[in-house]
Amino acid sequence: MGKVTSLFKLTIAQSFAVAPIAAIIALIAVAGPGAWSLQNGSDSQQRAMGEMNAALELTDLKSELQTINSDVLAVVTAQAAGNEIDVMAEFDAVGARVDGLSARITELQTSGADIAAGTDTFDSLVEQFIDAECKGPGFANNGLPKWDSWKLVERSLNEYLVSLYGTRSIHHLTKADIRNALRRIVAKGYPQAANTAFWYMRAFFNWCRKEDVIAVSPCDGLENPAPIKNRERVVSDAELAAIWTGCDSIGYPFGAIVKLLILTGQRRTEVAAMRWSELDVETATWLLPGARAKNNEPSVVPLSTLAVAVLKSIPRLNDTFVFPARGNDESHFSGYAKGKKALDGKIDIDGKTLENWTLHDLRRTLATNLGERQVPPHVIEHILNHSAGSMSGVSKIYNRYAYGKEKREALEAWSDHVGGLVKQAA
Fold first, then answer.
1. Rounded average pLDDT over 180-203
2. Higher pLDDT, 63 or 322
3. Which of 142, 147, 202, 295 would disulfide-bridge 134, Cβ 3.0–4.6 Å?
4. Terminus-to-terminus CA distance in the chain, angstroms?
5. What is the spatial distance between Cα 385 and Cα 388, in angstroms, rounded to a whole number?
6. Count of other CB atoms within 10 angstroms of residue 226
7. Residues 156, 196: contact at Cβ < 8 Å?
8. Cβ burial, residue 124 (10 Å; 0-12/13-18/19+)
9. CA 383 to CA 301: how far, in whole Å?
10. Any alpha helices (H) in 32-149, and if so which ranges?
């Protein structure tokens, strides 16, 4: 009875052994050896070693299965030839080997399933990147993100990468995949959006490398998908007055944002994400923290008389953001496209709309006008928070003067000029 049981055991064990092997081979064919990367250990070398060991393990299992099949065939052949052989004893031995093989396959298969459904899929890592890096650890408590542009980053990554490669393991994304995603954007007629998406992708993969998820970024060695257009547009005095008047027409919030862009020369998101805690209206000062600046350098922005008047006209809708998002007090205004479209509809220059201008042109316009008024380049660069521009490395290190007085005088003169233009156009 025991021998019959052993024979039955061998038959069943063989049946269960072949199926896991086939499943592993199929999984490897689709996902590649990277699907077997180690879950334990945060180091990239450990991960790569885990992938290699798993591939070797698979090869060893396949070889052992072939050996078992050969041994079973040899026993059956010997019995058929009439050789003296204890068939049941041989089958018992083979059955024990199959039991061991099945256990190893089950263990490896379970590990692979855990990884396939784990956190190394591209969509899962993008979500982690947004939460940990872009929103930052304090976002859940105070609603203040580490990156003011986190919504734009999230939207870009989801639209252009997650939509294509969301469930794929990040270990199997290649340079070709990144090129393909970027070429799709360019082909739709959005070359500059492709450049922006590439910069966000590069930041994401660099974060993954820093977190030891990957050893090499697929963005390494890639160039911008489209030529970067250096705009030279400077808004004329008549256009500036028309923009200001348009801002009066559309009102808060976007009208006030654009007015502050005109008067301070700061970047779009730096103004739109302005916090009440950064402002001291009594001393007419805006302290822009380094965490919110593009170059990570804090900047003291003197507020002109006209800028203070704009800020005093703004309703205080919450205690954090000067321009909170509509329906979400925990975030700041980000409806630039809709706001710009509404503003364009209100701008009238001799019966014509203003074409081919961007919000960033206002920053360039301020810098150009200050230069025309003989404001020294290093003062202009401090206003723009480009403090290293006209200084050598040594000068930057030793000259820590912030040019506060010079910046205030320059911005007050610019404010007077803008105010005069608006009065003339009225």
1. 91
2. 322
3. 147
4. 108
5. 9
6. 17
7. yes
8. middle
9. 7
10. 44-80, 87-116, 122-129, 139-142
Tell me whether residue 411 is exposed, middle or buried, using C-beta atoms within 10 angstroms of its C-beta: 0 to 12, 13 to 18, 19 or more. Answer: buried
Question: Are 225 and 185 spatial neighbours (Cβ–Cβ below 8 Å)?
Answer: yes
Cis peptide before 253 (omega within 30 of 0): yes
Question: In the structure, what pLDDT confidence band is assigned to residue 49 with cuts at 50, 70 and 90?
Answer: very low
Helix (H) or strand (E) holding 330, with range, is: strand 328-332
Using alpha carbons, select from 226, 207, 93, 227 the residue that is nearest to residue 150. Answer: 207
Residues with Cβ within 8 Å of 336's Cβ and at least 6 positions away in sequence, in order, are 268, 272, 359
What is the percentage of the chain residues whose pLDDT exceeds 70? 74
Across the chain, what does the average pLDDT equal? 79
Mean pLDDT of 163-181: 89
Q: What is the pLDDT of residues 229-288, one digit of tens each?
A: 777 889 999 999 999 999 999 999 999 999 999 999 999 999 999 999 999 999 999 999
Q: Would you state the structure tokens that stand for residue 213, as one six-digit string? A: 């998820």
